[in-house]
Inverse folding.
């Protein structure tokens, strides 16, 4: 078992990159996730999930013929996203519009080089200490010579969350595999923007500290049945706790 920074004992829960990124934005929203309060499904989320399935299929099985693209999307929805589609109650015309948007993203994606591709949608899990379960899913792993490169595809315009998410993946990868990936990369298929970093042991130690502090703070709040600090910002638009959060409501009134 790998070493991990000491945390307060308490309730066990999975620690994911999504939880970590959410906590950095707003600790109370992260606590809400652990209590089963999730953002409602959106068309944008469904489109992003479907695009990621298409990207993975391309990497593993090869080029998707344009004539088969809609059928491939239906297959991926049936195999992986049926629940999400049902919850949105999508009409056939809406689904066609979504697949058209995904195909536009795919046109950009298939122009990217695939040299060194190793695997897609790689689960990275470890239990570095008693009661701590770290989980991450890496979109794609490449091998550049002897160096591992982790890539995360983004289907939106912004890469604001990319750095903490990739930092979490680097930490989880090191704890699971014993060494750091050489390169972390986030790519927006919508804008072409790219963020590339080379993680260091010092970077990973800082991320581990932040994650350990988060686990302790969340455990204390759960045990005490107390709230956590609320941090308002643009992310409040999609927060499931907005209806009970004066800070978030006030922030959106200013932003709007």
């Amino acid at each position: 078992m790998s070493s991990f920074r000491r945390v307060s004992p308490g309730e066990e829960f999975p620690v994911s990159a999504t939880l970590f990124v959410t906590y950095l934005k707003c600790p109370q929203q992260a606590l809400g996730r652990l209590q089963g309060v999730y953002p409602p499904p959106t068309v944008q989320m469904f489109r992003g999930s479907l695009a990621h399935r298409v990207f993975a299929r391309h990497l593993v099985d090869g080029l998707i013929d344009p004539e088969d693209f809609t059928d491939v999307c239906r297959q991926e929805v049936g195999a992986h996203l049926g629940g999400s589609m049902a919850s949105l109650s999508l009409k056939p015309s809406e689904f066609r519009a979504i697949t058209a948007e995904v195909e536009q993203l795919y046109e950009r994606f298939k122009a990217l080089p695939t040299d060194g591709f190793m695997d897609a949608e790689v689960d990275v899990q470890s239990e570095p200490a008693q009661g701590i379960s770290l989980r991450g899913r890496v979109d794609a792993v490449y091998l550049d010579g002897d160096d591992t490169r982790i890539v995360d595809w983004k289907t939106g315009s912004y890469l604001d969350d990319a750095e903490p998410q990739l930092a979490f993946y680097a930490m989880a990868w090191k704890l699971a595999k014993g060494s750091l990936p050489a390169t972390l990369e986030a790519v927006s298929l919508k804008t072409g923007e790219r963020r590339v970093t080379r993680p260091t042991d010092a970077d990973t130690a800082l991320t581990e500290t932040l994650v350990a502090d988060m686990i302790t703070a969340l455990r204390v709040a759960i045990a005490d049945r107390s709230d956590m600090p609320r941090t308002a910002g643009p992310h409040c638009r999609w927060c499931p706790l907005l209806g009970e959060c004066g800070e978030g409501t006030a922030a959106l009134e200013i932003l709007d």
User: Anything to note?
Assistant: The chain has a mean pLDDT of 92. Strands lie at 13-16, 117-129, 132-144, 147-154, 183-188, 194-197. The chain has eight helices and six strands. The helical segments are 17-25, 27-34, 43-61, 69-88, 92-109, 162-177, 201-224, 246-255.
